[in-house]
Amino acid sequence: MAKTPLVELNDISIAFGGVQAVDNVTVDLYPGEVVGLLGHNGAGKSTLIKCLSGAYRMDSGEIRINGERAEINNPRDARAYNIETIYQTLALADNLDAASNLFLGRELTTMTGLVDDGAMESETRKVMGRLNPYFQKFSSPVSALSGGQRQSVAIARAVYFNARILIMDEPTAALGPQETRMVADLIQELKKQNLGIFLIDHDVHQVKALCDRAAVMKNGKLVGVVKVDDVTTDDLLGMIIAGKSPEGVAA
Amino acid sequence: MTDTAPNDAGDDQPKARKRGFVASLELDMRLLGMIGAFIAIALVFNILTGGRFLTPRNVFNLTIQTVSVAIMATGMVFVIVTRHIDLSVGSLLATTSAVMAMLQTEWLLQIFGFSLGHPALAWLAILGGLFAGTLVGAVNGYLIGYLAIPAFIVTLGGLLIWRNVGWYLTNGQTIGPLDETFQMFGGISGTLGTTWSWVFAVVASVATLYALWSARRTKQGHGFPVKPLWAESTVGALIVAAIMGFIWLLTSYEIPQRVLERDFEARGEILPEGYTAAYGLPISVLLLILVALVMTIIARRTRLGRYIFATGGNPDAAELSGINTRLLTVKIFAIMGFLCALSAVVASARLSFHSNDIGTLDELRVIAAAVIGGTALSGGIGTIYGAILGALIMQSLQSGMAMVGVDAPFQNIVVGAVLILAVLIDIIYRKRTGDT
Fold it and tell me: Residue A59: which of A19, A86, A5, A27 has the closest Cα?
């Protein structure tokens, strides 16, 4: 891969109180690539990625998008760089319907500047028709939806706006096997469209199946970045638990 | 993602043929419940007072007494929906009322050399009051949004501060009588009269029908299911009937002969034999209707409103969606401050003077009105029309009990109990229907 990376996270550090949540971590991501982020709870995966999505501001380090230095101070900045995030918590407003959630912060408006609910619902029906053809609850608040349906709303929101960089924070944690496979298919399809995807996951097998490379973190530090085809699941587990890179496989 | 069982697909599909008459109308059940409660209260008091409660005169008085609290309650909906509270509205009403009273009786006279009765006085005073209210509200919002001081504390402090700033501005004096143009916003001193009231009724009816029709056309344009035409027509007819009935009641309240005689004498004329005139729609009520309309449009059809409800439903999600929730807080409290000043116009104009204790305990009435109207303190849920109905229900209870002759302590005991009961019913209703 001689091309410019889509995303470069260079020497990122962030501390909360006295805790160094992320300590000098460097990871990059190429177009059409899926990079898995592995580690225990509290290893700093989500925190690292929230610096990219604008939810947190890093203390030091730099973010480069397409080789150029990027200033990301809040989620609006991240969206301006076509970075979309599917949060573990889904980040849905439970009292609003699917269309309002999908377009939250980016509402379609009529010529008079009022929100155009009809157009938004129509667009939502289209995109949901692709992702989850059985979905029909367009007028209910999302609190009335099942876990899988809520997840599909969150995914629809991320893919609708022509994301180039997609961050998925444990997208399958709440899903059954069949839904998990749909997410896997979706990831393959998005790869073909040349998106770069950061996938945060606990499941080593899933990372091996879905990702091109895996970055392992422990206690806020980067253990190593490896090509998943070069390592076994045991190697990955060793990196997560012992914090040691297997020899001769650095990517 | 594919766990959607077949039953799911059916949920939104038209089960139209099986649906009953009421279900086809697709009315808001909570709204119906509140209207039902209001009608029940009105009927009970009407019987207890031997028919005096539902006379045109009493309905007229009831509406003008409700306006001040109702205007503020619409703003309180936004505040509570975003999980805040505003305890300073009554005090802010007093301060803005004091500002407007001082402007029109002293300050403007000193600055511009106007004499009392100058036609611009009332308008400049109102402008000054609205500006002051909005500014104070925005500062509250800044303290809450940007400096992260809890709204409860900021507005509890404000309750003390603004009550006494008002006192300081006027040296504790009662200021009046206020400008005649200004008094037009108080209720009885400013009404549309018979002809214009009916003009309003027709315009409002046509606008309602147009709104229903265009909403239906938009839905059809996108190919969404619409309710049957007869149901749409029934809803339209009900609303038009309500508008016409309301205006008919208000135009049935005739101006007493003594008052007419005095008015004609003041103009140097003699009251013609057999001349009668009715009050019709008070300007203050017209003002409330406009506020309700604008606030409903903000809530439902603007990004601001969408962000208010999203933030109330899930503040983190709103923040992550790129919504500037801090600035949003400033805007919400600025709106609240503006509406306090608007209420101050109505409240002081109704009294025809500014007094130190104006708006005392209004913060509690306003919060109660919003909550009785279905606004959830846990955030994310609330309607403008609900808050106005809540204010109307409270005022009906209060003045109904006064008419029946219930002892003063019992009046407040009942209102307090109704507040708690209303919230309990709402909780039970939400559990039953599965709404959050």
Answer: A19
How far does CA B270 lie from the centroid of its chain? Answer: 40
Helix and strand numbers (H, E) in chain A are 8, 10
Span B379-427, pLDDT tens digits? 899 999 999 999 999 999 999 999 999 998 898 899 889 889 888 888 8
Same domain, A103 and A125: yes
Q: Which CATH number does the domain housing residue A245 bear? A: 3.40.50.300
Same domain as A208, residue A115: no
Name the domain boundary from A113, A137, A161.
A161
3-state secondary structure of B20: coil
| Confidence band for B153, pLDDT divided at 50, 70 and 90 | very high
DSSP H or E stretch at residue A29? strand A19-29
- Give which of B1, B81, B308, B328 to mutate to test A binding, by max A Cβ within 10 Å: B1
pLDDT 10s digits, B315-335: 999 999 989 999 999 999 999
CB-based contact (8 Å) between A238 and chain B? no
Domain that holds residue A128: 92-161
Does A19 contact chain B (CB < 8 Å)?
A: no
Same domain? A73 vs A170? yes
Q: Which of A72, A75, A113 is nearest to B324 (CA)?
A: A75
Inter-chain residue contact A96 with B313, CB threshold 8 Å: yes
CA distance B269 to B266: 7
A107 & A54 share domain: no
Q: Are residues A155 and A170 in the same domain?
A: no
pLDDT tens string A15-59: 998 889 999 999 999 999 999 999 888 888 989 999 999 999 999
How many structural domains is chain A composed of? 2
Q: What Rg, from alpha-carbon coordinates, does chain B have?
A: 23
Whether residues A56 and A178 share a domain: the answer is yes
- Is the domain of A212 the same as that of A243? yes
The ipTM assigned to this model is: 0.88
Q: What is the pLDDT of residues B239-268, one digit of tens each?
A: 999 999 999 999 988 888 888 888 888 888
Residue A87 lies in a domain: no
* Cβ count near B352 (within 10 Å): 16
